[in-house]
Design a protein that fits this description.
28% strand; 4-stranded antiparallel beta sheet; alpha+beta; 4 helices
């Protein structure tokens, strides 16, 4: 990352001198770095296999953003820890896995839900070709997970059936509450999901004052 340079190495564990990172891992922590995973709300350090904000401290941390003390203070704390804004965890073998960006987490009644986790579950369904999950405003919960899903040409499942598939694999607060079938998922030239655009379109497509449920609309 620009504010620090490399944090992990995928080929070769610096502590063992050999090995390749696991599938979906971003690698092992490089030497001479301190890395911790914290609860973004409390700052408390978290144990292994528990997702939290990735923080790093070393001689490679930038001095700060040019002429922007406010943003610098938000990014580097008084103890020299650089807060990356990434949610991830480290396993018992030292592999680090990224989960999502903090700003993209969905806040459901105080619980944090990672869109990437729900997208991963949706993509395991044999009829789902692509998917994107965003947080939608809700008076009772604050936000609820909403999904846009691209089905393959052989698919026969309804929106309700896809929602039930997700519900059977997650805790109650992670359930997808709104699902829309779409022709394609809007993405940037680099392949990044355009979540803001998707959220705007989904909010437009939900009927005013209607109960939260399934809405069939095409995202154009």
């Amino acid at each position: 990352m620009t504010e620090h340079s490399c944090i992990t190495l995928t080929h070769g564990d610096p502590n063992k001198g050999h090995g390749i990172a696991k599938k979906h891992s971003v690698g092992f922590i490089l030497p001479n770095l301190e890395v911790k995973f914290i609860n973004p709300a409390t700052g408390q350090s978290l144990p292994k296999n528990t997702p939290g904000e990735i923080c790093v401290r070393s001689q490679c941390v930038m001095q700060g953003y040019y002429k922007n003390e406010y943003e610098t203070a938000l990014t580097i704390d008084e103890n020299g820890w650089l807060h990356t804004g990434d949610i991830g965890f480290i396993d018992e073998d030292g592999d680090i896995f990224l989960v999502d960006r903090i700003k993209e987490l969905i806040k459901v009644k105080g619980f944090q839900v990672a869109p990437a986790e729900l997208e991963g579950i949706l993509l395991t369904h044999p009829s789902v070709e692509d998917a994107a999950v965003v947080g939608l405003p809700d008076e009772a919960a604050g936000e609820i997970p909403g999904a846009c899903v691209v089905m393959n040409s052989r698919a026969k499942e309804s929106e309700e059936e896809i929602m039930e598939f997700v519900s059977s694999n997650v805790a109650h607060y992670k359930r997808v509450r709104v699902l829309q079938f779409v022709d394609k998922i809007p993405k940037s030239p680099s392949g990044k999901i355009m979540r803001r655009l998707i959220k705007e379109k989904m909010v437009e497509n939900i009927k005013p004052n209607s109960k939260i449920g399934v809405e069939r609309r095409l995202l154009k």
